[in-house]
Specification:
The protein is an alpha+beta fold. The chain is 35% helix and 17% strand. This is tRNA ligase. InterPro entries: P-loop_NTPase (IPR027417), T4-Rnl1-like_N (IPR019039), tRNA_lig_kin_fungi (IPR015966), tRNA_lig_PDEase (IPR015965).
Length: 1075
């Protein structure tokens, strides 16, 4: 065994040099802060001393043409970064670092940090975002002629995104813009560390944006990386100087993941033998992203004593999807939980024909072409390597949720304790608060509503009513009494909630537990478990020791493991069972999933599960498949409750090999119920009772032949999923409602409510997934499903004639069961009993409008206004405007202001999902009728209804009646064309102005509405509200902003949109609306 080399302590300046305090972003040139000296010109003063001059000029500036080209490219990049950082509200900032070398030379580095949201705002690089590099340090070089140039000293990866997170990581883009092989590197759960050479004898170790010590931080990530560097080099009997020479000659940065739970815990646990620096990349120090193949990275790690990063190579996308879907079921590899994979691929050598490159087309253009959106190209050159990632929900994301929820509870507790101290309440409250209802004594009384009637009193009243009923004196029905009891209980809960809210606001009671985005049973139990141990509860003592080091990044895993032990115990199992969970190890029944993953039996049954909204065509496709192959078809609308539907699916699977579970299944809970049922029925370890013995005839005597228990099937689950997010919401509504109308009465219940659609989750536990487009025809969808199912099930492919015949029969299908909706029952004089329509399980709730929303006919949702539902993807249109700068007439100040406000709206989810143009509002009708009913003709123009509103009020009743008539179910739908020409905003509201509104169905529209919308096109000035800055800002403010923009008011911006500022054409449909 070779002796380990001896090294100086990590904090010495022996080889890495001693960094000095950083110089942050300054208003002057970024180049000035590179010197970190009083004089920022290296050619003057002390900088003429070679010891003060930046090094590296000769080695990286020689006559080699490729090196010279690299330096020229890096210099252009730094110039672009410097220009970007000097913008009024820069997306990029810089920090200077001076690193002292072992031979008295100094290296002046500049680290570049980009705001996280900036990576998402653009699908290409440009003046605002010159590079996608995440972790970039540059060094200033001097040449013999005195000119300043730059080199890339440390280079991280380009920012990469989750599958489907960006337009160019959506499945259709992955198919178009990747080539095999696909390299899946295991995503280690730590922090990034870069190691590069500043010369042929000196290394620099950095984190993403920093190096060396930081004020107020005991040990930085970079310093911990240095410590581990020595450990690994010692194991390989290597020195820092040797590694510096190797990386200098390569001109590369070694990219590591630092995993050390003794230093900083993350989400996943790392034992001592896996702690250290995991090498996962060797990147060229160049402006453009280039990285070594993984086999070379693996060999380098082994040679230099680092931990190699695990990776898998697959030859096709199909193999990639199969692997990630299978591992995603449990979120583990060989029993070890993993965060996910980084998938390394390459661009094709030529751009796929007909695909967009570098940006998404506007939705209006997409709609007008009558086709789906073209795949968007990643911002890379042909043949260039690029990455995307796949993260697993279980258990990684759940564990991460637990960590963030704990941090939130600790923050809330600290704020509450501060309030208690300010009120003179004394200690922390963890030991003085016996439960979640506040201290036993309080300093200030709080007002509370009158105590409502108690449940006991209600129960007593019920008993008295029953007694009276026996004597024939009852005046109140039992159902009435039940309703009254529920009402009293609700009032009591509301009163208690108000009282508690007041106590929390006053600092008397601790804050409520946080609401989790995930409704998983384990997460809900975890929140209450932590809350009880933070504040104490009945029978639970406060445990501050569990959280003592959480804020320092320590104790995260210990806390989680303590909870998982609790979850496995009897009490935890009872709570899990009460919430419908299972497999109390905190991994969504990971034991069951692990058993399923190890199940090598062939599939014997198949369940087909659509994921859709009403109108996608799932029932037509189910009937066609049944006609083609004899599949069983279970339709949820045949049942009043979910139990009946699930029981029927279960029963049909016993009699058939393939069952189509015809339900929207657009809610996660619905899919989980089906998956759990299939897992339960497929479990090879379940105990199956043999069939019961039967008696022979009247003579008695039992059949002694013991029947064998039935074989346990292995059930394949196949999702047929419609891409619901591929179209604007209004376009989705139009397509689906048209299909529902085309079916007429051939449906148990007609609804078109998509507000509850939850989409799909990555890596759901389906064995296979077949994707369909909402806007493709039924025949195309049927062929796609048949093409996916036949090889899977070993079925012969039917010919065109059989497919067409099956589809024709399916289109004519009439359900065996017909049920009335609530509105139908009400119109027929029925009571509309709540229980009579619960068969939809909430997925097709009666709260949704009938297919032709807001028709103005009987039943349905009350119409608040009539408008045009505009088929427009605001994210795509405005993203393209700001990312590509389409508007050449706009000033840079206006573009910067609009971009900032748009990003704010997008980040805070304030952009409307249903863009529309209001034609007439019920409030205007009411005002007009009010003004006509009083003697003062100017009453309609109050201070709340200025002149502009008064114009809108005039003729409102006539317009309302006209549009209500056009929206009647007996009439054809009314479609509109329009042009969106300008974007207006003022910091409170953002809107699009509209012109050239017309409809072939309403030839007198201009006379009815008072214009066509644009300036000079009449008094009607419509708009589409993009979003408002806050909940309390009403969208109607867009009217004001539009008028002020046209009047040239200061502080209100407007810019033309569309190619060359000519506007964007869009389509829309007349609808009665209530949202």
């Amino acid at each position: 065994m070779q002796a380990a080399a001896t090294h100086a302590p990590p904090d010495s300046a022996d080889e890495l040099g001693e960094p000095v305090p950083k110089v942050p972003n300054s208003p002057s040139s970024a180049f000035a802060c590179l010197s970190l000296d009083d004089d920022d010109d290296y050619d003057d003063g002390d900088c003429n001393d070679s010891s003060q001059r930046p090094t590296g000029t000769s080695q990286h500036m020689g006559g080699n043409a490729s090196k010279a080209a690299e330096v020229a490219s890096a210099t252009r990049l730094v110039e672009a970064l410097d220009a970007a950082r000097k913008r009024p509200k820069p997306l990029i900032r810089s920090t200077g670092h001076r690193v002292q070398g072992p031979r008295d030379e100094q290296h002046h580095l500049l680290s570049w940090k980009t705001s996280e949201f900036a990576y998402r705002k653009s699908s290409t690089t440009g003046s605002d975002l010159p590079t996608l590099a995440r972790g970039l340090f540059t060094e200033r070089l001097l040449t013999r002629d005195g000119s300043v140039q730059h080199r890339v000293a440390v280079r991280g990866y380009d920012k990469f995104f989750n599958l489907a997170e960006m337009p160019w990581t959506r499945p259709e883009a992955i198919r178009a813009y990747t080539v095999p092989p696909y390299i899946l590197t295991f995503k280690e759960n730590g922090c990034i560390i870069f190691i590069a050479a500043l010369s042929d004898h000196q290394l620099v170790v950095t984190s993403k944006h920093s190096t060396g010590a930081l004020d107020g931080v005991a040990v930085t990530h970079a310093q911990k990386g240095e410590e581990w560097l020595d450990v690994h080099l010692a194991r390989a009997a290597k020195t820092r100087e040797q590694l510096a020479r190797e990386l200098w000659q390569r001109n590369e940065t070694a990219v590591f993941e630092l995993c050390d739970d003794s230093f900083e815990e993350h989400v996943l646990e790392y034992p001592a033998e896996k702690s250290g620096l995991h090498l996962h990349g060797l990147n060229a120090n160049s402006a453009t992203f280039r990285t070594r193949p993984m086999d070379e990275v693996d060999a380098f790690a082994r040679e230099w004593g680092f931990i190699p990063t695990r990776y898998i190579e697959v030859a096709s996308l199909a193999e990639l999807h199969e692997l990630t879907d299978r591992i995603g079921m449990s979120g583990s590899w060989e029993g070890e939980p993993i965060e996910g994979f980084v998938i390394r691929t390459r661009m094709p050598s030529t751009d796929p024909a007909g695909q967009s490159s570098g940006g998404a087309s506007t939705e209006a253009e997409s709609s007008s072409a009558g086709s789906t959106r073209a795949p968007v190209s990643p911002p890379y050159a042909p043949g260039q390597t690029w990455f995307y990632k796949v993260k697993f929900d279980e258990p990684y994301l759940m564990y991460r949720d637990w960590r963030e929820l704990t941090r939130k509870m600790l923050s809330q507790k600290a704020a509450w304790e501060k309030t208690v101290h300010a009120r003179g309440g004394g200690g922390s409250g963890a030991n003085t608060i016996p439960g979640a209802t506040g201290p036993a004594t309080v300093d200030e009384p709080i007002s509370s509503p009158a105590e409502p009637a108690t449940t006991e009193a209600t129960s007593s009243a019920a008993a008295d009513a029953d007694a009276d009923a026996d004597t024939g004196e009852a005046k109140v029905s039992k159902s009435q009494l039940k309703r009254e009891k529920k009402k009293l209980e609700r009032e009591k809960r509301e009163a208690e909630a108000k009282q508690r809210a007041a106590a929390i606001q006053a600092g008397i009671a601790p804050p409520e537990p946080p609401q989790a985005r995930s409704k998983r049973p384990e997460t809900l139990i975890f929140i209450q478990w932590c809350y009880d141990r933070l504040y104490g509860a009945n029978g639970v003592k406060a445990r501050p020791d569990l959280f003592a080091t959480f804020g320092e990044g320590k104790g995260i895993i210990a806390l989680r493991n303590t909870f998982l032990d609790y979850l496995k115990a009897a009490e935890g199992q009872q709570k899990l069972a009460a919430l419908g969970g299972g497999g109390g190890d905190g991994s969504n029944g990971a034991a069951v999933e692990a058993a399923a993953a190890e199940d090598t039996r062939p599939f014997t049954k198949t369940l087909i599960t659509p994921i859709a909204v009403p109108g996608c065509g799932k029932t037509v496709l189910a009937v066609a498949l049944s006609e083609l192959f004899g599949f069983a078809h279970v339709q949820s609308d045949d049942f009043k409750g979910k139990k009946g539907f699930l029981a029927s699916v279960d029963k049909e699977l016993q009699a058939h090999d393939v069952v189509f579970a015809d339900k929207n299944n657009h809610l996660f809970q619905q899919r989980d119920e089906l998956i759990e049922l299939m897992q339960k029925r497929s479990d090879p370890n379940q105990v199956v009772k043999p069939p019961s013995k039967k008696k022979k005839g009247k003579g008695g005597g039992e059949d002694e032949a013991s029947a064998a228990p039935p074989a346990i099937p292995r059930i394949r689950t196949v999702a047929v999923a419609w891409q619901l997010d591929a179209l604007p919401l209004n376009a989705l509504h139009r397509i689906c409602s048209d299909r529902i109308l085309a079916r007429g009465d051939n449906h148990q219940t007609l609804r078109a409510d998509t507000t509850g659609a939850a989409g799909t989750r990555d890596h759901e536990t389906f064995d296979e997934t077949i994707w369909l487009g909402v806007d493709e025809g039924l025949e195309a969808s049927l062929r796609r499903i048949v093409k996916g199912l036949c090889p899977m099930l070993g079925l012969p492919m039917p010919d065109d004639a059989r497919i067409e015949a099956a589809l024709a029969k399916a289109v004519e299908y009439k359900p065996a069961v017909k049920r009335e909706t609530k509105s139908e029952k009400k119109s027929a004089g029925g009571a509309g009993d709540k229980d009579a329509v619960e068969g939809t399980g909430g997925a097709e709730a009666e709260a949704g409008a009938v297919a032709k929303a807001g028709s103005g006919g009987g039943g349905g949702v009350k119409v608040r206004y009539y408008g045009i539902a505009v088929e427009l993807d605001l994210h795509a249109v405005l993203g393209k405007l700001f990312d590509e700068g389409q508007s050449s007439d706009a000033s840079s100040e206006a573009i910067a202001s609009g971009r900032e406000f748009f990003h704010q709206l997008r980040q805070e989810k304030r952009i409307t999902l249903r863009p529309h143009i209001t034609l007439v509002h019920s409030a205007a009708v009411a005002k007009e009728q009010e003004s006509q009913s009083i003697t003062n003709p100017e009453a309609a123009e109050t201070k709340d209804a200025p002149a502009k509103q008064a114009e809108d009020v005039a003729g409102a009743t006539a317009r309302w009646e006209r549009y209500a008539d056009l929206c009647r179910p007996s009439n054809d739908v009314v479609e509109f064309d329009m042009v969106l020409d300008r974007l207006i905003w003022d910091g409170r509201v953002m809107a699009l102005s509209v012109r050239d509104v017309s409809s072939a169905s309403v030839p007198d529209f201009e006379a009815v509405q008072g214009g066509r919308g644009g300036q000079g096109q009449g008094r009607w000035r419509p708009h589409v509200t993009v979003g408002t800055a806050a909940q309390d800002i009403r969208p109607v403010e867009a009217n004001r902003a539009l008028m002020e923009a046209e009047d040239g008011k200061q502080g209100v911006f407007q810019i033309p949109i569309g190619q060359g500022g000519t506007g964007v054409r869009a389509k829309g449909r007349l609808q009665g609306m209530n949202h």
